[in-house]
Amino acid sequence: MNPADALSAADWLTLWLHFLSLSLLAVGGAITTAPDMHRYLVGSQHWLSDAQFNASIAIAQAAPGPNVLFVALVGWHVGLNAGGGPAGGWHAQGLALLGAAVAMLGILLPSGVLTYSATRWAHQRRELRAVRAFKAGLAPIVIALLMATGWLLSTAHGQPARDWPLWLLTAATTVLVWRTRLHLLWLIGAGALLGMLGWI
Amino acid sequence: MSATPPAAAGDGTLGAPRSRADLFWSFSWLALQGFGGVLAVVQRELVERKRWLTREQFVEDWAVAQIMPGPNVVNLSLMIGDRHFGLSGALAALAGMLTLPTLAVVLLAALYSNVADVPLVQGALRGMGAVAAGLILGTGIKLIGALRANPLGMPACIGLALATFVAIGLLRLPLGPVLLVLGGAACVWAWRRLP
Fold first, then answer.
1. What ipTM does the predicted assembly reach?
2. Are residues A52 and A139 in the same domain?
3. What is residue A68's DSSP assignment?
4. Which residue of B has its CA nearest to A101?
5. CA of B14, closest CA in chain A: separation in Å?
6. A124 in a domain, yes or no?
């Protein structure tokens, strides 16, 4: 194990405080704080590499579950490196899990407590005109945000001329989700199969 | 929109989670189906299959979950769990949303370095990414129907949604100012139109 990579107790605390401080800024999802995480953890502290950071985001996108899990993977990589990398054996794996737990606890604790208290307060006062207006006013906005997210994901595919089969698959999925009750796992599986066959 | 009656209008009766364990496993199962984002699955499972929420209630809750800091589906799990079983329900739903998916993602990360360059894996990820975009778009289209009951009225809702879509999706403006301006205006307007 390379002693230069090891983290002291103070380092672990710093890591936790970093995620804690980003939590309340994560309006619109934890991914909005990714640039700041990168700046601090990769740029200033060198606790994980650029490639590890990017892999964290890519794996969390591909894996099931909320996208916030990329934060767990960032922490996992930091812990793994502190334990000497994949060659570090069980010691490194243990630190990696500790890193994942520290990161998730930091990113979720403040926002979770705030959301829990605020939504509880609002639910008890759900007949208030202000609370009803808040929810009614935001409804069309968040539906548009969802559509914009879908749009940004589609356009990330690249050029229509070359990647039109991907666009076609996205369009077909859109219609199937909208008009049918086909199980979503079938659609995901079909996408994976088409991709493996090289048709898209 | 105003009162939330126990039975949804026209849609049969609403269901409810039977226990905290039901909350945990329901959220585990929907999180594990959520490739490329969980929101589409939450809508399908909790609104269409289990009927814990009407479509209108779902849009309202999700609007709040989206506006609060933190991941929207994590916030939603806290809100829905709390409504049925209080704090312990919120924690059960949150644990369901995170525990098994975290283990899955860590396992995948441990394997990933070995298979990242395999063309089959890259192809599968491309295909799943395209489907994930479609899941989100299809869910969005389906939720537009929930705006019919909105006090702003359908034309205003469509106008606000279009403006938001252009600002975020096409002009790529930062989320904060867009929410503040368009969301703020929409809330004030809704306040004036409500009795």
1. 0.85
2. no
3. T
4. B102
5. 18
6. no
